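Protocol step 4 of 6: record predicted structures for both targets in the notebook before any analysis. Target 1:
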Amino acid sequence: MAVQPRALVIGGSLGGLFAGLLLRRDGWHVEIFERVPEALAARGAGIATHPELLDILARCGARADDNVGVEVPRRMVLDASGRVVAERVMPQVFTSWGRLYALAKAQFPAAQYRGGSSLERIEQRGETVIACFADGQRAEGELLVGADGIHSTVRAQLLPAVRPLYAGYVAWRGLVEEKAISSATHACLLDRFAFCLPPGEQMLGYPVAGTANSTRPGERRYNFVWYRPAAEEPDLADMLTDANGQRHQMSIPPPCIRPAVIARMRGAAETLLAPQFAEIVGLAREPFFQPIYDLESPQLAFGRVALLGDAAFVARPHVGMGVTKAAEDALALAGALREVRDVASALRGYERARSRVGAKVVARARHLGAYMQAQVRTAAERAMAERYRTPEAVLRETATPMATWGGEAQ
């Protein structure tokens, strides 16, 4: 390899940034290519952090101090009347996607982060990998990292048959400014990771940093996620159709969701959820939904190309591991390349290590989400669904570190 080997990272979200920062630390010249031309918008998504994520963030040079998120000391489950039916002390830090993205991106050289770069194909020639972009741009390096998410162009070229599998339900999401919440609901929710469990559904919520990434009380936001079954036909198809009659394929931009779809969701909240959560749903200015998918790549290494993060494995959000897994993928990739000089050999070692982890995370998430699937077919699936339906199990198992998991998803 050259004195300073070159790495091309496709995808400028958190997984790509973690990979780029950790490789730079080890002496690589890294360029990140992001399809979106402008800075990625602060997505309306909260994130449960784990110690491993905060450690890797620090290794990347970002200060994982008290301002990274909001520490929530307790978990609780509310019934439909708003009464607490289960509670558990379990401190955890919750943050927002936008906060982590800002921390990580600030550490990466702006001149080497190239927005508006839409990948068309990759080529490998001997010790060189080439990325070819829609605008005619070409980039060469000794390594290419596919960190371009669930709709990965890199994976589509290398594994065209591997596609996301719809799980049978969607996640409605939204953010509410803390100052807009009534005093009674604020007192109940704002210092807890809270759940409500309508039949076959799950609502959860927690506080995150505010619009200016502030974690000070009064300046935060409340993040909710509501899992609801939706048959692929006709329910999801209808939800993915905008006001002009255009059917979007796997997701729909929030502004394109028809008002009638949102109105039905808000009406269901009044009927099914604890009053505290119904208030939160009613206050959300632009709620949106995401269909829930699984994805497992049977291969992560392809010569000098590696898949990372959601380009490799996509697990349902119940494990709260999406960003943490991407960060750990990046750490493992950098470690493998540090220990083995030959890129192809190093990537095979990375694949052996992270394929097992990715499969375990996906299996764990399937177990946790089983009771929200539209149809549970086998006796084993029904038993697993019942196992995770109780308030105590939800409190104990949701979004916990991998080290605490039982053996069912090994």
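Target 2:
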Amino acid sequence: MTVPVTVPVDVPVDGIVVVDKPAGRTSHDVVAKVRRIAGTRRVGHAGTLDPMATGVLIIGVNRATRLLGHLAAHDKTYEATIRLGVTTVSDDADGEVVSTVAAAHVTDEDIAAGIAALTGDIEQVPSTVSAIKVGGVRSYARVRAGEDVALAARPVTVSAFDVLARRGDELDVRVSCTTGTYIRALARDLGASLGVGAHLTSLRRTRSGSFTVDEARTVDALEQAFTVVSLADAVARCFPRVDLDADTTRDLRHGRPIAATGRTGAVGAFDAATGDVLALVQDDGEVAKPLVVFAPA
């Protein structure tokens, strides 16, 4: 694993900041805070966390903002608590309660069967109180305006859905899944399959791609020591790597295709002479085309 480097906040930096987002703050709140600490407007995040949620939020600074869309597509892991027997409008604890049903009769075997049906490749209907746009308007805005919103199901993959502990009507779970999976929708659908309803009472993202909560820093800690994974280290860590000679480096710096890498998906291309990261490329037949070209620092 690459080691994050602490840099003075008055030194321009390109890289990834792994933040441990606190509850009650939006992802945008965290971005605004990092902008102030880093002294630059060029800051963004990969993979939004709801205000209730905590844990790994990937922040890109300066040139690394161009990497964020590709990092957001990586798989993620969450630890969460599901409350059986209570349904809310938002499928989590921030929403108004819709119904309450006794759930004491639900057995561990019932829960295991319900979870099994929600594991693997599934079609998931996102929570209506979400940022998905319907006719150009956020779904949550339509719901809050009193509209009935019906979102289309979308394919997601839940590679692991495990119960860590049961405390009466509450389940502590761990979920690993593809991007775009709504953990609160899993809670909702589990409750529906058990006939008692359910919602999410806590959510913590423990992994986003190769970045884990063990290396995440709170915003307060970042104000004391601004800890960054350099752009080159982040690319090398998250994608396969190829090192290019001088002629190929020149072509790539000008956005021209290069010879195919023989790899699948996005590949980090580096200048073999300097170790600088040049771009993300992807094979297209006999050539590799640039997905993102990083301007020289």
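Step 5 preliminary note on target 2. The first strand starts at residue 5 and ends at 7. Helices lie at 27-38, 68-72, 108-117, 139-144, 183-194, 219-224, 231-238, 246-253.
Proceed to step 6 after PI sign-off.
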